[in-house]
Amino acid sequence: MKKIIVNGIIVTAADTYKADVLIENGKISAIGHQLSREDAEVVDANGCYIFPGAIDPHTHLDMPFGGTVTKDDFETGTMAAAFGGTTTIIDFCLTNKGESLQNSIQTWHDKSKEKAVIDYSFHLMIGEINEAVLNELPQVIEEGITSFKVFMAYKNVFQADDGTLYRTLIEAKKLGALVMVHAENGDVIDYLTKQALEEGKTEPIYHALTRPPEVEGEATGRACQLTALADSQLYVVHVSCAEAVEKIAEARNKGLDVWGETCPQYLVLDRSYLEKPNFEGAKYVWSPPLREKWHQEVLWNALKNGQLQTLGSDQCSFDFKGQKELGRGDFTKIPNGGPIIEDRVSVLFSEGVKKGRISLNQFVEITSTRIAKLFGLFPQKGTVAVGSDADLVIFDPTAERVISAATHHMAVDYNAFEGMRVTGEPVSVLCRGEFVVRDKRFVGKPGYGTYLKRKKYGEDTLKQQETISIQ
Ligand code: URP
Ligand code: ZN
Ligand code: ZN
Predict the structure, then answer these.
(1) 345-359 pLDDT tens trace
(2) How far apart are CA 95 and CA 103, in angstroms?
(3) Which end of the chain, N or C, is surrounded by fewer C-beta atoms within 10 Å?
(4) Is residue 379, in this structure, part of any structural domain at all?
């Protein structure tokens, strides 16, 4: 059935204007004034913005990690994402050394197929490069997985060596993929953590103290240099500190094809959270860790001036009870990660737009448009335009709420932003023209979300390395 959204203010990465949106067959078929309402369901968006559905480029759903499995799977995770205004996620498909890439990808299809309530795609982890992997990569690209992830940390678990990163960069350039890195120096972290444990330093705060900003800055700089050498393209995930921003800015200033993502937790939480009593600091254990507060301003400025371009959630949720608690008496056993998928957009709007740190159009660029362009989804996703999927968020910019585990939709038993007051909230969310959330109530269906084959890196996105205007 046709739908027409009336009286809303459309916001894209470039424009803000009042117009109605006509939806037919899951796509936006017209934008304008006095559009025919014949046979159409009329949806009133008076007083609200209409944003393109947000895209989360960084999630870990149903993922085994740290001796346990993330609490949110593709059903609860995508449902929570939808409540937060996200209509597409790109999840990380893990691989195991010696196992075929196709097996790993099939595992991720099996995890997601009947469960996702919004659209989804996968990045593929590259842990080793050998003949078998090289032979499989063209098929991976054929299947629309056009981004590869290399971990420079998590020694003896996910960490790849520099040779693997370098060869991945070379292959990515040949095949049309974007290489993503978790940039921390895993060998140095391994040394520092062993030393801390030997000295009896076992509390959550030592997770942060054994992964100082220098190890992130060093790995980020190394990844940029290897990208230059390979004449390739790089996306640095979850940037947390000034040292890493500096390396990305330096690379971009030299004209390198390097991009950076940060996450809400690094923008609004700080290292002192790891010192909460009764082991509650474990709730705030991420890698990279939360930093001293002054880094937040650097990250906000980097988003504003285009040195960082995207916001991911790095959703990787574990219950406090029974999961984070695995690390009582040994911080290295605390599963790393947190529940952010639901509040990513709200936190950026409230702390960013409402507080004047970024513009409304930058907010759309950072949460949706730039991500669609980098990951081969534009213009199907990432904008409000005729012909694009009708992935739309009707957003009330004046609504106030207090974030809490008591009201969130994630499966996990705490919220990292507990008690934080935010302004602005998605009221209704549509994915391909169907309501997933309507008037703040879930009306979607597990299995509705479809797998998205993505285009090659840079394909018909004109020029990725265009100047991002300072607004
Ligand atoms: O602590 C984190 N970030 N957990 C998720 C896995 C990763 O490194 O992205
Ligand atoms: Zn990571
Ligand atoms: Zn992650």
Answers:
(1) 999 999 999 999 999
(2) 9
(3) N
(4) no
